[in-house]
Amino acid sequence: MRLGYPAFLCAFLLLFCASCAVASDDNVPVPNKLATSIQHALDTPGTPYHLQVNCTDNKGNRSFELFSGGVTVWNRRSQINLPESARASLLTTLIERDFPGFDEIYGGQVRPEKSAAPARISCRVRLGIDNLEKSSVQMVGGDPSAKLSDLAAELLDQVEEYSDIAVTPNDLEDALVKLANKQLAPQTLQLRFVELPDRDSHSSGCILRLTGGQLSQQAYSPGQEVGELSKKPLNEAQFTRLLEAIQSAQITRLSGNMWSEDRIELEVQVLAHKKVILARRFSRLDSTAQDSAQQRFDKLIQVLRETRG
Hints:
Layout: H1 5-26, H2 30-43, E1 50-57, E2 60-66, E3 71-74, E4 78-81, H3 84-96, E5 105-107, E6 121-129, E7 132-139, H4 146-160, H5 172-180, E8 189-196, E9 205-211, E10 214-221, E11 225-226, E12 230-233, H6 236-248, E13 257-259, E14 263-270, E15 273-280, H7 292-308
Parallel strand pairs: 5-7, 13-15
Antiparallel strand pairs: 1-2, 1-6, 2-3, 3-4, 6-7, 8-9, 8-14, 9-10, 10-11, 10-12, 14-15
């Protein structure tokens, strides 16, 4: 069928406008998308989001990390379960102070291109919501951002109001008991397990990490390979088995040096309490050691390997 020129022009304009509409949706500025997501979370109680704030001000060095569901790590030492009203208040503050429009970086100094010195940060607000992420940091040096420090202080003050209901373990053993009793949430357990084969082996090593309830792993051989990072949530059954293995190993009573055919580094941390174990073919340790501590350690390593998959 042939179209006359006016009909052809109308059809072309309709197609053009439709394509513009799609493009405009895809090109909505990120700050506007973020503001919309925050407002949607306010209108829909229970919407998950992840918020991290750390800042040094006249009240000292304070920080919190809020996970989905309200579990909040305060000053890296305690856990607070924030009520829904408090979580909504934090979102309201982010909107009222226009956090979506903040710059990613304030201040800072120009460093030599090959400088190995890490950048120093004095203040940070970071939000993850609805597959969007926004971070605004104050670098040491340069002009300070009053609006970033004011926002951070207000958010920190709001969380600190609930510090009287915080759960604070005395040591790692107490923290593990509180995890088992569900006084502490799984997100407070952090773990780093590095296993490297013997230097003459052609197989790859691996790094396993547990942070905030998320399990990540990647192949790793120093100077040879750094594999792609894969992530997945640690389900309840896996967490229970892992926690039971850590407790059964009596990890707080294990030596910092254990024996292993391969090179192993293991860090287990709950809030401010950490245990670090290095295992390898130490000459002063017997590979055939059958003492209970070595056996407990070997069983824990087996569970970690199975968790890694």
